[in-house]
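Re: beginner question about structure tokens

> Can someone show what the tokenized structure looks like for a real chain? I only ever see the sequence side.

Sure, here's an example I had lying around. Input first:
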Amino acid sequence: MCHSIQCRDRNKLYNGPVPSVENRDRREDLGNIPSGFDEDVHAKNLKECKKYPYLLHSFTGHGIFAATHKDMYKYLPTNDTEIRKRKAKMFEAGLAYIVRRDEVLKDVIKWYVLCALEKDCMAPRNSMPTCFFEGHTQYEEWAGCHRFDQSALNILLANVNHYDRHYYTSDIVDFFEIEREFDDEEEIDMPALGCNKPMLVNNI
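And the corresponding structure tokens:
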């Protein structure tokens, strides 16, 4: 994961053109959410060198649009078409790999904090966390729920990453386990991340 970000410093072409919307839609439809550490996927990510310096890891099982109250978009506008697609997946906000970069501070953290300071942005009236999915509504239809800070973060990351989780998620999911019933800290070894350092994660 460290290497996925560090390559941006060595490769000045990382901010070049990305595949077309059609090609990226097809990639998401044909691909699978990683279930561990895939060396081939990691190698392709390093070669492409387009991972954003704020990476999420744990897929929620649904899209951003499905779990975001409509009133949040008054404060954090987005592309109504793209945010409903399968590639605009929602990932858990509580586990992230973040590199301090100007682009992250300017495009994500700034608006994340401003939204948190405005109640009607972070917690729109009548918003609730419980979702009601019916049929194939995990992406294109609202499930009557709202995920507060998680919704805000995913909108902001999607907005600056072509509404495509490929660029704001790590594709590495074998280094953590989230246990919501505990609130203590556990040390997690991350050899696959190439960081050579343990990480402390709050189980929330």
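Each token stands for a local structural state, so reading them left to right follows the chain. The chain is about 30% helix and 10% strand.
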